[in-house]
Design brief:
Pfam families: TetR_C_24, TetR_N. This is Transcriptional regulator, TetR family. The chain has 9 helices and no strands. It is mainly alpha-helical. It has a domain of 142 residues: Tetracycline Repressor, domain 2, CATH 1.10.357.
Length: 209
Protein backbone atom coordinates (compact mmCIF):
# COMPACT_ATOMS: atom_id res chain seq x y z
CA UNK A 1 0.00 0.00 0.00
CA UNK A 2 1.30 3.41 -0.89
CA UNK A 3 0.22 6.78 0.41
CA UNK A 4 -1.91 7.10 -2.69
CA UNK A 5 -3.83 4.03 -1.53
CA UNK A 6 -4.73 5.60 1.80
CA UNK A 7 -7.95 7.51 2.52
CA UNK A 8 -8.22 10.72 0.53
CA UNK A 9 -7.97 13.82 2.68
CA UNK A 10 -11.51 15.04 2.18
CA UNK A 11 -11.86 18.36 3.96
CA UNK A 12 -15.26 18.38 5.55
CA UNK A 13 -16.56 18.46 9.08
CA UNK A 14 -19.12 15.67 8.72
CA UNK A 15 -18.95 12.53 10.79
CA UNK A 16 -16.74 9.70 9.60
CA UNK A 17 -16.41 6.15 10.99
CA UNK A 18 -13.76 6.00 13.72
CA UNK A 19 -11.21 3.81 11.95
CA UNK A 20 -11.56 5.72 8.68
CA UNK A 21 -11.14 9.02 10.51
CA UNK A 22 -8.06 7.70 12.32
CA UNK A 23 -6.56 6.57 9.00
CA UNK A 24 -7.27 10.01 7.55
CA UNK A 25 -5.51 11.68 10.48
CA UNK A 26 -2.47 9.42 10.13
CA UNK A 27 -2.26 10.14 6.40
CA UNK A 28 -2.52 13.90 6.98
CA UNK A 29 0.04 13.84 9.78
CA UNK A 30 2.47 11.85 7.64
CA UNK A 31 2.22 14.41 4.85
CA UNK A 32 2.62 17.39 7.17
CA UNK A 33 5.46 15.90 9.24
CA UNK A 34 7.30 15.10 6.00
CA UNK A 35 6.76 18.62 4.64
CA UNK A 36 7.38 20.77 7.72
CA UNK A 37 9.01 18.42 10.22
CA UNK A 38 7.76 17.45 13.65
CA UNK A 39 8.46 20.79 15.32
CA UNK A 40 7.06 22.70 12.34
CA UNK A 41 3.71 20.93 12.45
CA UNK A 42 1.03 21.62 15.05
CA UNK A 43 -2.02 19.58 15.96
CA UNK A 44 -4.07 22.50 14.64
CA UNK A 45 -2.37 22.05 11.25
CA UNK A 46 -3.30 18.36 11.23
CA UNK A 47 -6.88 19.11 12.28
CA UNK A 48 -7.28 21.72 9.54
CA UNK A 49 -5.86 19.33 6.94
CA UNK A 50 -8.54 16.82 7.96
CA UNK A 51 -11.33 19.39 8.09
CA UNK A 52 -11.98 18.80 11.78
CA UNK A 53 -11.63 20.72 15.02
CA UNK A 54 -8.59 20.43 17.25
CA UNK A 55 -10.87 19.16 20.01
CA UNK A 56 -12.09 16.36 17.74
CA UNK A 57 -8.49 15.44 16.97
CA UNK A 58 -7.80 15.09 20.71
CA UNK A 59 -10.49 12.40 20.82
CA UNK A 60 -8.18 10.19 18.73
CA UNK A 61 -4.74 11.36 19.88
CA UNK A 62 -3.94 12.93 23.24
CA UNK A 63 -0.91 14.90 22.05
CA UNK A 64 1.44 15.38 19.12
CA UNK A 65 3.97 12.82 20.31
CA UNK A 66 1.28 10.15 20.58
CA UNK A 67 0.24 10.99 17.03
CA UNK A 68 3.82 10.76 15.79
CA UNK A 69 4.27 7.39 17.44
CA UNK A 70 1.06 6.17 15.80
CA UNK A 71 2.35 7.35 12.42
CA UNK A 72 5.57 5.38 12.87
CA UNK A 73 3.74 2.28 14.05
CA UNK A 74 1.38 2.51 11.08
CA UNK A 75 4.20 2.91 8.54
CA UNK A 76 6.15 -0.02 10.01
CA UNK A 77 3.01 -2.17 10.09
CA UNK A 78 2.41 -1.41 6.40
CA UNK A 79 6.02 -2.26 5.56
CA UNK A 80 5.84 -5.58 7.40
CA UNK A 81 2.64 -6.48 5.56
CA UNK A 82 4.41 -5.79 2.27
CA UNK A 83 7.22 -8.12 3.35
CA UNK A 84 4.71 -10.80 4.40
CA UNK A 85 3.16 -10.73 0.93
CA UNK A 86 6.56 -10.81 -0.80
CA UNK A 87 7.71 -13.88 1.13
CA UNK A 88 4.42 -15.76 1.23
CA UNK A 89 5.07 -17.99 -1.80
CA UNK A 90 8.81 -18.52 -1.38
CA UNK A 91 9.82 -21.70 0.51
CA UNK A 92 11.66 -21.27 3.80
CA UNK A 93 14.55 -23.33 2.43
CA UNK A 94 15.27 -20.76 -0.30
CA UNK A 95 16.94 -17.99 1.77
CA UNK A 96 18.67 -16.27 -1.14
CA UNK A 97 15.39 -15.91 -3.00
CA UNK A 98 13.74 -14.68 0.19
CA UNK A 99 16.50 -12.11 0.77
CA UNK A 100 16.03 -10.73 -2.73
CA UNK A 101 12.23 -10.67 -2.39
CA UNK A 102 12.53 -8.93 1.00
CA UNK A 103 14.88 -6.26 -0.33
CA UNK A 104 12.95 -5.68 -3.56
CA UNK A 105 9.67 -5.30 -1.66
CA UNK A 106 11.28 -2.94 0.85
CA UNK A 107 12.81 -0.78 -1.87
CA UNK A 108 9.58 -0.60 -3.84
CA UNK A 109 7.49 0.26 -0.78
CA UNK A 110 9.89 2.90 0.54
CA UNK A 111 10.24 4.48 -2.90
CA UNK A 112 6.46 4.66 -3.28
CA UNK A 113 5.88 5.92 0.26
CA UNK A 114 8.34 8.80 0.26
CA UNK A 115 6.44 10.90 2.79
CA UNK A 116 6.46 8.00 5.24
CA UNK A 117 10.16 7.46 4.54
CA UNK A 118 10.95 11.11 5.30
CA UNK A 119 9.07 10.94 8.60
CA UNK A 120 10.84 7.74 9.61
CA UNK A 121 14.26 9.13 8.70
CA UNK A 122 13.65 12.29 10.70
CA UNK A 123 12.57 10.32 13.75
CA UNK A 124 15.44 7.87 13.79
CA UNK A 125 18.21 10.27 12.74
CA UNK A 126 17.28 13.57 14.37
CA UNK A 127 16.69 14.82 17.88
CA UNK A 128 13.70 17.09 17.27
CA UNK A 129 11.06 14.43 17.82
CA UNK A 130 9.99 11.55 20.01
CA UNK A 131 11.92 12.04 23.23
CA UNK A 132 11.11 8.43 24.13
CA UNK A 133 12.35 7.12 20.78
CA UNK A 134 12.97 3.79 22.51
CA UNK A 135 9.25 3.13 22.16
CA UNK A 136 9.55 2.80 18.38
CA UNK A 137 13.08 1.42 18.02
CA UNK A 138 11.77 -2.15 18.60
CA UNK A 139 9.57 -1.77 15.51
CA UNK A 140 12.61 -1.00 13.40
CA UNK A 141 14.59 -3.81 15.04
CA UNK A 142 11.79 -6.29 14.34
CA UNK A 143 11.88 -5.36 10.65
CA UNK A 144 15.66 -5.60 10.46
CA UNK A 145 15.52 -8.89 12.36
CA UNK A 146 13.45 -10.48 9.62
CA UNK A 147 16.17 -9.83 7.05
CA UNK A 148 18.85 -10.94 9.49
CA UNK A 149 17.04 -14.26 9.99
CA UNK A 150 17.09 -14.92 6.23
CA UNK A 151 20.79 -14.06 6.08
CA UNK A 152 21.45 -16.47 8.96
CA UNK A 153 19.70 -19.22 7.01
CA UNK A 154 21.78 -18.46 3.91
CA UNK A 155 24.97 -18.63 5.99
CA UNK A 156 23.88 -21.94 7.55
CA UNK A 157 23.17 -23.33 4.06
CA UNK A 158 26.65 -22.35 2.88
CA UNK A 159 25.34 -19.82 0.37
CA UNK A 160 26.98 -16.88 2.13
CA UNK A 161 30.24 -16.65 4.05
CA UNK A 162 30.07 -16.81 7.83
CA UNK A 163 29.99 -13.13 8.73
CA UNK A 164 27.93 -11.11 11.21
CA UNK A 165 24.37 -11.21 9.84
CA UNK A 166 23.50 -8.05 11.76
CA UNK A 167 26.22 -6.10 9.98
CA UNK A 168 25.18 -7.54 6.61
CA UNK A 169 21.52 -6.65 7.14
CA UNK A 170 22.38 -3.11 8.23
CA UNK A 171 24.62 -2.68 5.18
CA UNK A 172 21.83 -3.79 2.85
CA UNK A 173 19.12 -1.73 4.52
CA UNK A 174 21.36 1.35 4.59
CA UNK A 175 21.42 1.57 0.81
CA UNK A 176 17.78 0.51 0.52
CA UNK A 177 16.81 3.41 2.77
CA UNK A 178 19.12 5.82 0.92
CA UNK A 179 17.66 5.04 -2.51
CA UNK A 180 14.70 7.50 -2.29
CA UNK A 181 17.18 10.36 -1.89
CA UNK A 182 18.30 10.06 -5.49
CA UNK A 183 16.15 7.55 -7.38
CA UNK A 184 13.81 9.17 -9.91
CA UNK A 185 10.72 7.03 -10.58
CA UNK A 186 10.45 8.55 -14.07
CA UNK A 187 14.07 7.63 -14.87
CA UNK A 188 15.35 4.70 -16.97
CA UNK A 189 15.75 2.33 -14.01
CA UNK A 190 12.90 1.06 -11.87
CA UNK A 191 13.51 0.83 -8.14
CA UNK A 192 13.60 -2.97 -8.55
CA UNK A 193 16.40 -2.59 -11.13
CA UNK A 194 18.37 -0.40 -8.74
CA UNK A 195 17.84 -2.73 -5.79
CA UNK A 196 18.83 -5.78 -7.83
CA UNK A 197 22.08 -4.15 -8.94
CA UNK A 198 22.99 -3.04 -5.44
CA UNK A 199 22.14 -6.45 -4.02
CA UNK A 200 24.17 -8.25 -6.69
CA UNK A 201 27.22 -6.14 -5.86
CA UNK A 202 26.75 -6.62 -2.11
CA UNK A 203 26.21 -10.37 -2.24
CA UNK A 204 29.06 -10.91 -4.71
CA UNK A 205 31.52 -10.18 -1.92
CA UNK A 206 29.72 -12.47 0.51
CA UNK A 207 29.55 -15.67 -1.51
CA UNK A 208 31.95 -18.51 -0.63
CA UNK A 209 35.02 -18.67 -2.88
Amino acid sequence: MTQADEPELVKHSGKMPGEKRKAQILSAATKLFARAGYTGTSLRDVAEECGMTKAALYYHFADKETLLRAVVEHRMSMLNKVIDAALADIPEDQPMQRIRAFVRASGRHIDNDRAGWVVGARIFWSIDALADRDAVIPLRDQYEGRLRAEIDKAIAAGELVDQDSGMISRLILSWVNYTPRWHKPEGPLSVEDVVDQFLDVTLAGLRPR
